[in-house]
Amino acid sequence: MVSLESFPEITGSVLTDPDVMAAYAVDHCSPVHGAVPLAVVLAETTEDVAAAAGWCYANDVVIVPRGAGSGLAGGASAIEGCVIISLAKMNAVKEINAQDQYAIAEAGVINADLDRAVREHGLMYPPDPSSFEICSIGGNVATNAGGLRCVMYGVTREYVLGLTVVLPDGRIIRTGRRTVKGVTGYDLTQLLVGSEGTLGIVTEVTVKLRPAPVIPPTTVAASFPDVVSAAAAVAAVVGTGVVPALMELMDRRTLECVEALRPFGLEDETRAMLIGQGSTPEDAAVLAREFEAAGAHYTVVSDDPAEAAELLAVRRAAFHAYEHAGNIFSEDVGVPRSQLPEMFARIEAISAKYGVDIPTCAHAGDGNLHPTLIYPRGEREVPQAIWDAADEVFQAALALGGTLTGEHGVGVLKARWVGEELSDDVLELHRGIKAVWDPKNLLNPGRGF
What we know:
Layout: E1 13-15, H1 18-21, E2 39-42, H2 46-58, E3 63-66, E4 83-86, E5 93-97, E6 102-106, H3 111-119, E7 123-124, H4 137-143, H5 150-153, E8 160-166, E9 172-176, H6 188-192, E10 201-208, E11 210-211, E12 218-224, H7 227-240, E13 246-251, H8 252-261, E14 272-278, H9 281-293, E15 298-302, H10 305-316, H11 318-325, E16 327-330, H12 340-354, E17 360-363, E18 368-375, H13 384-399, H14 418-421, H15 424-437
């Protein structure tokens, strides 16, 4: 094993105690168990990251970049003998430019903290993953995270203007710009967004901001007799041309899991719940009309922000409720929105076929579903029935013109299925790009593809 005696001095700290490092060896992906790292670097500056990466490159040591550890695909799990470089302590919002509507944030800044900071200037940072209170901007960039508001505002990729990046050999580069437009050279910024830490380590992000809405959106919540009807309501809304501020769907099993964790008064007749928001009362009226036409038992329309927050808290609690129910294999397939009813129907059939518990919630306005396969917490290894059911869910999504992952990333969990979506020629191009950026294959190897 390589000795750490020659490791450079850095501003941050270097952890080597196995018990302490264990907390950094895994993310939120239950099926992926992290190995034992050589060390964990708690970087505080871009120069810390560069020094650590340069040492790893010189000594042929694998690097695993890590943000807040909230990932769901095992992309930040430790590889045997690696150095984990944690960006969690790099949590400063370095600049907010209200006039030009951009901000510069270190990679460890929590998503919700950035949004709160820019709200003081009448602006907003729109991407808001369900884990927005714990996930970091750097991690959001790594997986091109979306969130509840992405149906109207778009995902992380659409807000990243520029990046500060440490290459595997320790060089520091800056990509992108602060201007609205710019086409000088290849767009390396967008290449890095969604690259899952396999090309470079993002240490700072320049993001585009939007004016915060002056009037709160109007919320529409509806109860449905089945999840397929609720999904059909989503497709109907899309057909009207109205763009909701958000549209989230939860099936009955998801609602039961949330009720067990934090009771909210689940009705027996509610087999699915759809929560939408319209930017105007007129848009909200269209949502309510389409919900009712699709067979909603009842529909509630409210312009009360407190009531909206309570409803959205139910949706945001879904993942933690799944964790409370057992070990989870979390998927995030995407399908064309017109195919949502069929995809939900197939998930229900797969659940019944394998006897696997698969609660499903969705950023329905984007066609991004989160079928989550639950298995007993006492089982360290993923049961074969879970793998088989997951395979059928992925195949169903692809057959409907969809994708393996909308925002969680491939990581380790879905690597075996990448060839089902990407052709051999496309994968060859991926490998070529990886070889240019990381010729020694030291940066998060085996993740993403």
